[in-house]
Amino acid sequence: MLLNAGNASADVISSLPQNASQVELEFAPLYDYDKDGCYATSAITPEGRTNPGLALGGDVNGKCRDPRQLENSNTYSRSKTNNGWTAIMYASYFEKDQSTLGPAASGHRHDWEHVVVWIQDNQIQYVSRSEHRGWKVDPRSNVRFENNHPKVVYHKDGGSTHFIRLANSNDEPPENYTGRWFSPPLVGWDGYPNVHVRNTLMQTDFGDATIKINDERFNDALNSAKPPGITFDAYADDSKRNFVTFFEDYSGTGQSFRDSVSRNWVGSYPGGAYFEDKISSVKLDPHTRLVGYQHSNKGGYRHTIINDSNDVKTYDLTTFNDTISSYEIDPLPQHSVTFLQHPYNDNGNSGHHYTETVSQPSFANSPIGSSFNDMASTVIVGAYTKVELFEHANYGGTKKEYVNDTNAEQVFILEGFHDKASSFKISNTR
Q1: Deepest in the core among 36, 98, 325, 359, taking most CB within 10 A?
Q2: Does residue 12 form part of some domain?
Q3: What number of CA atoms fall less than 13 Å from residue 303's CA on the CB side?
Q4: What's the pTM value of the predicted model, to 2 decimals?
């Protein structure tokens, strides 16, 4: 049987196997694709060959709505966590984005569309989705879910091109050939066959279509898609996340999973249900605190482990073995004080300096080094930090306090205490 040229498919390239973090899988969108548009498909093969896309012409869904294309599709994800929020961006590829019919059709070869979910307290609170050159943000109450998965639709915007919209009651049942909400195999940032394949995809020029999970655009896209008023920092250094690895057996052995986000139930972490009440040891990143709870939703007895060292450390849960059902993971605050020899100025001519940093939120008691005794004229106090200066060693004599309850360093000139500090204490203001 001959296929109509408008509906014949382009050459289909193979997709990547699913390989993403468990939290990215847990909250991944479910998709449908309106009939006046393409199916999502693979943007790159396991060998690193990118999809050439489709030239405009014919039907708006011409050559791009064959079941094989959807069967060989992927969604690509990247996430960032800070200030109590996790943002996960999901990117979908389409071979063309065509708005009108025929040889003079308008639109462009290739299309990338994106969805961002905003997670707080282990629940999606907002969903953002790309809409032409901007973003539309909706609260959770506007979103239709299947379990933790928001439902979205690839949709043609009248006489214009396509974008992602939220599903509504008229979208049941879905229009794609399976008749079900579709979840393409998900590929996370660390889930590509190798770095070369990822770099090839991220550096490919897709013309008018842009992939926003690459290094060049990711932070800016998160900032543009961010719901108003939330504390998430789109430009925070993602490398500073604190991770905990949970192990089935003692001494960091046996089955394991890794996380950097607090959970109300171990089983709410896909694949983690196996670990509820079965965790025997944990490995903590430097300057990390773990609080494990006996019950879900942080109930029952609790057990706290603090790694305030500069090394990764493994701890056996001898008194809390096979007990953890929920947990909190937090970075230990870094409280710092820098002493300057001379009054501070913007030219950097403040003489010698001496810095003390502690991560425990309790008092840190220190003598000033003998080479800096009675020499400080300025202190630079880190965020949410209080420093007490003492005239004599062993915290004796006159005392002066300098308190910084902001989220940025503050400079204090030691008026009346110039060249007098011999010992000090650092503490947390929060």
Answers
A1: 98
A2: no
A3: 19
A4: 0.60
